Fold this sequence. Notes:
Blueprint: H1 11-14, E1 23-34, E2 37-48, E3 52-56, H2 63-71, E4 78-85, E5 88-91, H3 97-107, E6 108-112, H4 123-133, H5 138-151, H6 167-179, E7 185-189, H7 197-210, E8 217-221, H8 225-228, E9 233-238, E10 241-247, H9 251-263
Parallel strand pairs: 3-8, 3-9, 6-7, 7-8
Antiparallel strand pairs: 1-2, 1-4, 4-5, 9-10
Amino acid sequence: MLSRTVHQTSPAQAGDPLAGHPPVIIADSLVKTYGPTRALDGVGTIIGAGESVAVMGPSGSGKTTLLHCLSGILAADSGSVELLTPEGGIRVDGLDAAGRARLRRKRLGFVFQQGMLVPELTAVENVALPLMLNGVDRTTAEARASQWLAALGLPGLEGRRIGQLSGGQAQRVAIARAQVTDPAIVFADEPTGALDSRTAEEVMGALLESTTGRGRTLVVVTHDLNVARTCGRILTLADGRIVADQRRPGTAAHTENSRQEALR
Length: 264
């Protein structure tokens, strides 16, 4: 069984980081090295269902490596990551590369700085792609994709290719693609890094509304304090270790209210 004392600052010192959210990810003693560089140095944390968590830190602090290890993009050299689902716990660190790929495709969503969209495909085809890879027929997949594009403020743009969209519109397509499989957790790596401040605010609003606003979990790596402050919790890394774990005042109640609204 994994210990719940999994970050460098004890819960008694920092207060309960989950603040009433049941755990959805438990990471313990993660180590990841690149040659002589120790990107993660015994990192552990617990992330709760319905939380929005920003991961901050200077360049090279390990924040993107942490996101990749939590989501199964990378395998840590040692330590453990457990994803808690209604069917039971899944030890991400116990899966091989193919197993981690299946886990990402079926249970997790991703938004990256440049969107990582396929330029040859239309907006609706990009969003429908994860469903089709999971065996959903094209008609059903594109219908569901169109619903998500409309929900994110892009009705009528389904047939446009990515190069015909603004940066903010393209990131909304990326958010729709991340959400179309209804994942429990969305991981976002600098999702506003290539956007101007106003568009970044709009994109973060859409990302939060479509995740924590529906009772889902969001983990976002960012260097932008304004982006981090929209999240309910901020993890700060330095030299591969968590040096601060702070909850934003009032955000837990906001998240719970949003979740209740989404369930009505």
